[in-house]
Amino acid sequence: MICSNNKNQKIFVAMSGGVDSSVVAGLLKEQGFDVVGVTMCFNITHPNSNKPSCCGIDGIQDAERAAQILDIPHYVFNFAHDINEKIIDNFTREYLNGRTPNPCVQCNQHLKFGSLYDKVRSLGADVLATGHYAKIHFNEISQRFELKKGDDPRKDQSYFLYSMKKETLPHVWMPIGDLTKTQVRELARKYKLNTAEKPESQDICFVPSTGYKKFIEDRLGKEVMVPGPFLDEEGNVVGEHQGIVNYTIGQRDKLGLALGYPVYVYRIDKKTNTVHVGNLSHLYAQGLIAAQMNYLSIEAPLKNLEVSVRIRYNSKEVRAFVSSFDGNLVKIEFAEAQKSVTPGQSVVLYRDDVVLAGGIIEREINRDRSDF
User: Fold this and answer.
1) What pLDDT, on a 0 to 100 scale, did the predictor assign at position 194?
2) Which residues are catalytic?
3) Which value, in Å, is the radius of gyration of the alpha carbons in the chain?
4) Which of 249, 261, 280, 321 has the fewest CB atoms within 10 Å, counting from its CB?
């Protein structure tokens, strides 16, 4: 948990108001570092929501209180424009295009390790420390910094961090990457932090408990919910959907269809405003095409690289073969077919516990098409 022997470094800790980042500040102060707490303000309020948020007023107040308990300076920076422009606008646009975005990946890329990182570095920070369950390691053989999984597989957040710029890695610390959540809470109690028993924030911080569909409708208007046809595997119209925003790949519930057998959403077509449904077999794909690739521990282009990949945060890693083509696109072929490959989500490439690269899923591919 000791990140460096150089105690002269100035460490800015990104404090969200949760237990993890509060403990990071406590750990680093205990180790003798010059610690400053910083919190991002997004001017987000959910007056009718009952879920905890890591970026609302309550989070800012909890971060301020934790800083007072630890007796460290604390500053709040307003990034309301950044989250609207770089995260929320993309979030709504992706759903309108029939895709399922991952705003946590975008937030890490553009806000935590983008806007906030640039801000604290401009203020003289040597290091930005965060409460992520992941690790940054210097590989003596390759002579490069690497992003690695957190030791606790139940909490590992490396999937959400693949989009970090490799040049930021030497200046970012993740001190709790080798701890479990139980150990973190024990440290919070040791430091007598107000966040010690605080429940974890869930889902998307800027979306209230009424759900993302209502959030998009309130933001853009009901007119974006354009009804259209449900099509079965044969192309027959089997019902009317209530706007493609309401659906995601793999969805079975709340389709409003009574066909006498279970069906799942397996494709969403923005151009024709159609939602395709079929039996479970239609959810499986032999591979995928990914774009917007970010290479952390390897160099592009890729040629017949064998790796393990994860196509969503809570999925298991699977063996796959990766190759580059057509610029920054990559083709990934799974060793075994995978279910619910979802455009807009992220695919992350691993070798053992090292994050090699990652990108955004564009579409699934199958051997019965001309993709292979």
Assistant:
1) 95
2) 107, 205
3) 22
4) 261
